[in-house]
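forwarding from the other thread:

> can someone predict this with pyridoxal-5'-phosphate?

sure thing
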Amino acid sequence: MTVTTPPNVYDAEPIPEAARAEIERLLSSGDLFRYTAPQDAPVALLERDFAALMGAKYALAVSSCSAALFLSLKALGLPRGARVLIPAFTFAAVPSAIVHADCQPVLVEVGADYRIDLADFEAKLAQGADAVMISHMRGHTSDMDAIMAAADRAGIPVIEDAAHSLGTTWAGRRIGTIGKVGCFSFQSYKLVNAGEGGILITDDEEVAARAVIMSGAYEHNWKKHDGHNGTLTAAFERWQNRLPLYNMRMNNLSAAIVRSQIGEIDRRVRDGRAGHDRVAERLNASPWLEVPPPLAPELRAPDSIQFNLVGMSDAEVDAFTAAAEAGGVKVQVFGRSRDNARAFWNWRFIDGEHGAAPADLPQTRAMLMRACDVRLPARLTEAELDFIADALVGAAAQAMEEERAYGT
Ligand SMILES: *Cc1c(COP(=O)(O)O)cnc(C)c1O
């Protein structure tokens, strides 16, 4: 079967039927706050399920991945002004969480394969760093063996921003469990959709207890977290009344919506990867499109595809995106759309009041000027995937042949 109308890549999947009875129960009772029930509130059950799924000791569900990233920095006890290394290719929420925690983001170059440049990482580490927040942007995993080894040598913690990496594995280990803390998002454009929401996981008692209290477990509400045979009790008692409450809790409705999708994760990962690889193979057959391969230990869980435009001038890039759009597929070239939140030069808040653009990172800038982004949700059929691939390959040929024909 061939598809003749462009597929809608923005619509979400329906929320599983299983969520409805639970949501109806919560609406009838009005029991929306995670700390009202004496035990087994939907948020606490989500934390238990998610920790088990990931093989982590502790999970804390919060209002967003940004909140999880912020709380991770606070829970690690980083001092004001601490230098936190991040890849320069990420979403603005990442340096924002660092600024929110009164720390200083230090941007590291990223290569044409969207992964952190290890030489620049080592150089910035040598200049002095207090933590690493490694953002697996669009699910692309940097070399975690090299990053962990370098961070361990420097004696600094690694936080994984796995917002968009649920289901990805590195050498068989789940992404988000390799660093000291892993953070995930349940915002609608991620693998699990609750509209908004986030969760952090860790095996570290001190980090877990501090994050729970600061997320808003006031008074003795931390008792409703300790489903782990009392392993956190001593840490909770040590930190009681000594930490600010930032109130970034998740509510029961969001947790019910997330829990209903946990059983869908494996299918979405499998279908998302198959769909991605199908489109990637077709794009790589074009001389003007290139999908960088994953690193060897990496098994991805993509819900979008990124590819580089090869040998195109700026005018040809614009002709390509226009032709793709005319063919029904909207392509974003990260660096060529105005005010893009993934282009580091737009993160002028890093400089505080002055609002100066961060220092230039030529390699990351060059990548952003040619890297394209197209959503490929797991629910797309093969015919819809082929429609998208054909539109992209055709648009590239059209852009290049037109340019050649008119002799630029
Ligand atoms: C979506 C995203 C975030 C932010 O997640 P929120 O839940 O919206 O705060 C952070 N980092 C990456 C890589 C993301 O994709």
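The mean pLDDT is 95. thats all i got for now
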